[in-house]
């Protein structure tokens, strides 16, 4: 499968713990996006990268959230001191260079904070 | 601020009947509009975009700037159309930027 991959697919943690998610974009896609989706809602934008540079962050991305893309390939999203409100599906997408700039989504990481 | 509204959470139709999913947006400029679909146990995927003016899997969508709408239509629904559908907007001033999604419409096609 050459699509966007995310790891882990599911994560259960206790409130206050730190979690880290990984996203591997489609090869040679230089744009990478993180979204969060809660029950009954569409995906909401969190942040995005062009290569290793983080170009935009949503106000949803509190100080407890940090995202990196150190070598311009895979990205990590870390949540520190998790709260129950962080429970959601975290989606990653990558975008190709062509003029349509289509975003291709990964399967997501489902987080449950107890 | 931009907003995408999908007024129907659930749409139940019979196989062979027409189906229309509504999408309205608020944005003062000219947006790019998309429909994404998520089939059961699959990832979110692009169905169609307004600039392509194409029909995908029998679905079409027309951007109506006067009514700020981008409704998705199919004349004859099939059981395999059962899925979650999301309307999304992207600013033309930031074509590499984020997508803004509506809350989604669950379509159930019954035989």
Give the tally of β-strands of chain B. Answer: 11
Low-confidence stretches of chain A: none
Q: What is the tally of helical segments of chain B?
A: 0
**Coarse shape of chain A:** globular
| Biggest sheet statistics of chain A | 7 strands, mixed
Q: Specify Rg of chain A, calculated over alpha carbons.
A: 13 Å
Strand content of chain B: over 45%
The fraction of residues in strands of chain A falls at over 45%
Characterize the structure shown.
- The complex is a heterodimer of chains A (114) and B (111).
- Chain A contains no helices and eleven strands.
- Chain A has strands at 5-7, 10-13, 19-24, 31-37, 44-50, 53-57, 65-68, 75-79, 88-95, 103-105, 109-113.
- In chain A, strands 2, 4, 5, 6, 9, 10 and 11 form a seven-stranded mixed β-sheet that branches. In chain A, strands 1-3-8-7 form a four-stranded antiparallel β-sheet, with no helix packed on it.
- Chain B has 111 residues and is mainly β.
- Chain B is built from no helices and eleven strands.
- In chain B, the strands form three sheets. In chain B, strands 2, 5, 6, 9, 10 and 11 form a six-stranded mixed β-sheet that branches. In chain B, strands 3-8-7 form a three-stranded antiparallel β-sheet, with no helix packed on it.
- In chain B, β9 (83-91) and β10 form a beta hairpin.
- The termini of chain B are far apart.
- The model of chain B has no long low-confidence stretch (mean pLDDT 93).
- Chain A binds chain B through residues 3-4, 31, 33, 35, 40-45, 48, 50, 56, 58, 91, 95, 100-108, and chain B through 4, 6, 9, 43-46, 49, 52, 86, 88, 95-104.
Jot down its keywords:
heterodimer, A: 114 residues, mainly beta, four-stranded antiparallel beta sheet, globular, B: mainly beta, six-stranded mixed beta sheet, three-stranded antiparallel beta sheet
């Amino acid at each position: 499968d050459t699509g966007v991959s995310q790891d882990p697919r599911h994560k259960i943690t206790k409130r206050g713990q730190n979690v880290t998610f990984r996203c591997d974009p489609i090869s040679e896609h230089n744009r990478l996006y993180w979204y969060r989706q809660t029950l009954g809602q569409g995906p909401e934008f969190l942040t995005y990268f062009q290569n290793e540079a983080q170009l935009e962050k949503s106000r949803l991305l509190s100080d407890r959230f940090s995202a990196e893309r150190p070598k311009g390939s895979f990205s990590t999203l870390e949540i520190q001191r998790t709260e129950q409100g962080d429970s959601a599906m975290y989606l990653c997408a990558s975008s190709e260079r062509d003029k349509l700039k289509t975003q291709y989504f990964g399967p997501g990481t489902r987080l449950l904070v107890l | 601020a931009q907003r995408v509204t999908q007024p129907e959470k659930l749409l139940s139709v019979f196989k062979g009947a027409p189906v229309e999913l509504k999408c309205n947006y608020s944005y003062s400029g000219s947006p790019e509009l998309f429909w994404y679909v998520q089939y059961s146990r699959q990832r979110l995927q692009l169905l169609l975009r307004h600039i392509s003016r194409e029909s995908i899997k029998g679905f079409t969508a027309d951007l109506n700037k006067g009514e700020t709408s981008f409704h998705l239509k199919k004349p004859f629904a099939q059981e395999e159309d059962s899925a979650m559908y999301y309307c999304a907007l992207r600013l033309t001033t930031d074509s590499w930027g984020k997508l803004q999604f509506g809350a989604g419409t669950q379509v159930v096609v019954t035989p």
